[in-house]
Amino acid sequence: MSATSGVKATAVAPRTTGSESRSSSPTPPSHDVGGWHRFWGRFDHKVVPYLLISPFFILFAVFGLFPLLYNGVVAFRNWSLLDPANDGWAGFANFARLLEDDKFWNALGNTFGIFILSTVPQLFLALVIAALLNRKLRATSVFRVGILLPYVTPVVASTLVFASIFAKDNGLANWVLGLVGVQSELGGGQVIEGVDWRSTKLTSWTAIAIMVNWKWVGYNALLYLSAMQSIPKDVYEAAALDGAGAWKQLWRITVPMIRPMVLFTVVLSTIGGLQLFAEPMLFEQNAQAGTGGTRGQWQTVAQLIYYTGWKQLNLGYAAAMSWGLFLIIVVIAAFNAFLTNRLGGGKR
Amino acid sequence: MTSTGPSSLGVRTVGAVGPTPTHDTQPVRRKAALLGRSPQDTAASPWNYVFLVVAILASAFPIYWMFVVATGTDADLSRPAYMGLVPGDNFMHNVGVVLGNVAEQGRSYDNARFADSFVNSILVTVIVTASLLFFCSLAGFAFAKLRFKGRDALMVIVVLTLTIPNQLGIVALYIIISKLGWQGQLISVIVPGLVSAFGVFYMRQFIEDSIPDELIESARVDGASTFRVYWNIVIPIIRPALGVLGLLTAVGTWNEFQWALIALGSGSPNKTIGVALSDLASGNYVKYRIVLAGSFLATVPLILLLFVAGKQIVRGIMEGAVKA
To answer: Which of residues 279-318 of B touch A (CB under 8 A)?
Structure first.
């Protein structure tokens, strides 16, 4: 970045002198046109750049930046649509309530559990698939495009099909589990093939994690593939002395070489994974309830924010929750980045 | 995968090259050289293809299953494995029900307004994509090639917001939308999407890398205004990047759910396709054959897009066009 901008700066330097001489040279011969011309030249240089960025910046400021700042204000206020009269500063009350809210901690635990179950296999499989794609292949683009099918599928649609696959009765997953003899007993002594996916934390987390894994493996594989393809070939030639096989080659050479990209995907999937919303929402019998199961078995923080803000209509508290989530995302993303860096460093 | 040991790699790879002409003549030396060869120069083994095909099938299966369920009758779907994992013949009926053309006993699906929501989603996607491309390329051009006071500081602000989770502003954004009286209307999902920080960042990067300053300079010497430079020089050169950004934006907009649910509200007369699907799936008892007929219809446009422009989408992702 710094190197290229240095080069650019020298390239730009003659331009400014050129434009100055250009705007001054036409003035003496032209009469009234010259004044307008000069005005237009100055206008084009001084004002037009701001005009070009202004549509973006106005919209960005109002609908992007301002909400981020304003959310901080809302979090410190009583802002309940059910109780509009009680409108005023709440101080730290919303945050204090957050710390003692069992629902919040439950949601945080769920979010974290689903995040682990979805991110670790996701990035591991993505690495393996990227390695498979990083070969002299026929029909390369068929594979690369095919792997993106989950990425383009609307998350609502894919979650609904998984919700049917993980149905308690007549679901495909339970049919398969039934074939291999898995049965479980429900409360009233009723026995079903497979498991009641929505009844416990671990089973519901697993079902949701499978959806997330399915959706993002291919996308991450392409990110890894692009990083793998920029590894200089002589790195591999040098490593020939070790007699490294394909599997070893992947973990000893390729993965350490793409460490920055691994770091990037870890941070990216932390930010995305901790905000998980659509999957847990639509996994539920009532896709707009936001309760995450009868006992909140799989309610994520993003779902709880929705539930608090738009079902209980307490926007002030929901805003405080989103600050809580933000802080947790920052901490975990930093921790994960640190961890990945250390692990990668150890492998070298 | 674990079976691919050091020695089997060489053997398998040579085997895989079999049908195509091999350049190397001596097999012994070849094997030794292979071990130090970069993966990209190593021909894929048959197992490599097998695993990849499995990955593609796993990627495609849920979409296929969406279709299978959408072709069933209630009786079909109460049998284990349905119709033996193959489609039935009730697809048109289920599609008719979801579109509100065919009535079904006990429940009307009219209020999901699925057909309207389909049109709405097309409208929202087209407007958002076109506007984002125009405004973000304008601003990206200014940030990359024009000099003005405060340029670097403004760009830093844009980049900083890239990593902030959108969850953080969602309550405040809703309050703004309500104050504007846009709640429940399509404009509430359109306007916040008209520009994106990522779009500007991406455009600035591409313009900086692909357009030499001399080109812009010579056009200016010829008397072209800044906007003319943008329109006649920058736009034609950045067309591939516009295509990539446009595709990623379109996919993202079509698939957006959380903000649409909040801003439009459940049961709203104006919905995007995601909200309509969640309305369909939020009754006390959900008929998957109808919900998944709708899901399948919502997925088809994107699969077509992937068929037509898949290579560009792949390139966009691989060039680092990632959306946090």
So the answer is: 279, 281-284, 286, 288, 291-292, 295-296, 298-299, 302-303, 305-306, 310-311, 313-314, 317-318
